[in-house]
Amino acid sequence: MKTVNGLTLMGLSFLAVGCGPSEVASGPNGAYSASKSQYLVDSEPSDAIPVGKARESIEDGQDVTLVGLIGGSSDPFVEGLAAFTIVDPKVPCCAPDEGCPTPWDYCCTQDQVKDNIATVKIVDDSGRPVVHGARGLLGVKELSTVVVHGKAIRDDQGNLTVAANKVFVRPSN
Amino acid sequence: MLLPWEYGVRNLARRPVRTALTLAALATVVMLVFVVVGFIRGLEKSLAVSGDENVVLIYSVNSEENIENSSISARTPSLLSASLDSVVKRFGVVHVSPELYMGTRVKTEVGDGGLGLVRGVSLTTPLVRRSVKLIEGDWPASGEVMVGRLAAAKIGSSEAAMMVGKSIDFEGRVWKISGQFTAGGAAFESEVWCGLSDFQTSTKRQDLSLVALLLSPGSNAAEADLFCKERTDLELRAIRETDYYASLQQHYKPVRLLAWCVVLLVSAAGIFAGLNMMYGAVAGRVREIATLQAIGYRRRAILISLMQEGVTLSATGSLLSGVIALTLLNGVAVRFTMGAFTLRIDSVAILVGCGVGLLLGVVGTLPPALKALRAEVATSLKAI
To answer: What are the phi and psi torsion angles at B243 (to 5°)?
Structure first.
């Protein structure tokens, strides 16, 4: 009987521990560290320009502050690296009432996306991409509006990448 | 006191025709279960072994999950080689495999044929597709192809028509079969491989379907993915080969669920058929059962003896089906949309098949036996 009581007590203890509050906070798209990322800023950087305008005017190596929505393909995040693509807020994505399961791929407005898309990679002090998924690092998800500040990287094909070190996530409405 | 073991066994021999028919029915049900579970296990195994953890596939972002629809620029392999550090490079050879992959109508010399999967490859392909082994003949020269072990099944032709030295016809050209290869059960085994430039000439295409990269062990596929995200003009996407086949597993999940439903339905039908037969068998033995009760055997002992008969019969049926499945069904090629795979009668299939067989023996016997035992002994003794 003692053994049975002991086992029951042990089982209940495990249950109590298992049901306790987790030390890891849950983000909008999975768990992320509760300690705030050093790349996140509290206040929105000023003079942010939309992606489409930046692709027209920004040159390679220039400091830039971009605003855009995370999206552009069915999987805009790079798994394992703090990198993602953003699309100019002026490009419309599928409305929620259309029932599209992945509105962030801009399936209905793909022709507009190619001139209004940029890649954002969060880099450390040495300029290398941070080896941590952006969802966990920044607590963002598809169609989150972000304002990023960093250095622009342009190539001959017109692609725009921002090596960012500051990210502000606009609260969703 | 239980009835002697021999009593139940001898009872089976007393009615040989009925016993043989019941055995045949039980064996058929178990065989059907083996076929369906073998199909599921074969499909799962084929997708599970397809894919190398260190290989990353680069293909068009617009083709969704279907590589056959992908079209990417022919300069992509050189761009990738120049941009990615994690790709294996040995003796000056970068392990990058440009490939053109499509489904096309393939005809054999004897005139039969069907939709086949053809892959245009280069000499670097075996460095990346490491599971592929040439088992007969040679690597294809110009105007030649090598065929996978299951290519004949995929095309719907005979193995004799796809032997080394024979010819096949596709894309308006006759190709000589120079060799045969295996790939450890992977999806490649249902494909036909030829030289990339030959295939591009025949199809009048200059593009590629995909580029397969072999990454150094422990390196991160994210580097390739980041390259694709940064070069938005190329409209590429990168996926680890194992993840690609895992997504196909998800794609075929409804098929697998449906197949498991078939297992359930076949088992249920088998149980009902077994019930029907056992009702008939027990109904004809009402007097015998009553006599056993009259001479002092308890109902539980008689029930156990009846169940012993049922289980002996179903276990024999399961063993019979198991032997036939292992010798005749195991390894039989099955044509499927993604290619071809072999039926796989493995431990899981044996467990499910024999489990269903034994269940038929127990569940099929219980209700009629209980019904017979509930009847009054005096009434049953007078039964005709």
So the answer is: -70, -35
Beta bridge partners of A167: A40, A148
Beta strands in chain B (DSSP E): 55-60, 89-90, 93-94, 96-108, 113-121, 133-137, 144-148, 167-170, 173-182, 191-195, 210-214, 236-240, 333-336, 339-342
Contact call for A161 and B233, based on CB within 8 A? no
Question: If you measure CA to CA, which chain A residue comes closest to B60?
Answer: A73
Q: Which of chain A's residues have a Cβ under 8 Å away from the Cβ of B58?
A: none
Candidate from B221, B226, B231 with C-beta closest to A129:
B226
**Predicted pLDDT of residue A27:** 36
The mean pLDDT of B10-16, rounded to a whole number, is 83
Are A157 and B231 an interchain contact pair (Cβ–Cβ within 8 Å)? yes
- The reported pTM is 0.73
Distance from C-alpha of B95 to C-alpha of B89, rounded to nearest angstrom: 6
ipTM above 0.90, yes or no: no
Is B116 in contact with B154 (CB distance < 8 Å)?
yes
Tokens of B244: 């690609």
Residue B321 binned pLDDT confidence (cut-offs 50, 70, 90): very high
pLDDT tens-digit profile of A12-63? 444 343 343 333 333 333 334 434 578 999 899 888 999 999 999 999 999 9
Query: Residue A61: its pLDDT value, please?
Result: 92
CA B234 to chain centre: 37
How many beta-carbon pairs under 8 angstroms link A with B?
Answer: 49
CA distance A105 to chain B (A): 11
**Contact criterion met (CB < 8 Å) for A80 and B231:** no
Name residues 68-107 of chain A within 8 A of B (Cβ): 72-76, 78-81, 83-85
By three-state DSSP, how is residue B68 classified?
Answer: helix
Cβ distance A159 to B229 less than 8 Å, yes or no, reads: no
Q: How far is B226 from chain A, CA to nearest CA, in Å?
A: 6
Alpha-carbon span A84 to A72, nearest angstrom: 9
pLDDT tens figures, B246-255: 888 777 788 8
**pLDDT at residue A98 in the model:** 79
Which residues of B fall below an 8 Å CB-CB distance to A? 61, 64, 220-223, 225-226, 229-233, 237
Best to test chain A binding among B229, B234, B242, B244 (most A CBs inside 10 Å): B229
Q: Judge whether A83 and A23 are in contact, CB under 8 Å.
A: no
Q: pLDDT tens, A107-150? A: 888 889 989 999 999 999 888 899 899 999 999 999 999 999 99
Asked if B232 and A114 come within 8 Å (Cβ–Cβ), the reply is yes
> Phi and psi dihedrals of B164, rounded to 5?
-60, 135
- Which of B259, B264, B270, B262 lies closest to B27 in space, CA to CA? B270
Token output for B86: 């994690």
Average pLDDT of the residues in B293-302: 87
* pLDDT score at B129: 94
Per 3-state DSSP, chain B is made up of helix, strand and coil in percentages (nearest 5) of 55, 20, 25
- The answer to whether B34 and B322 are in contact (CB under 8 A) is yes
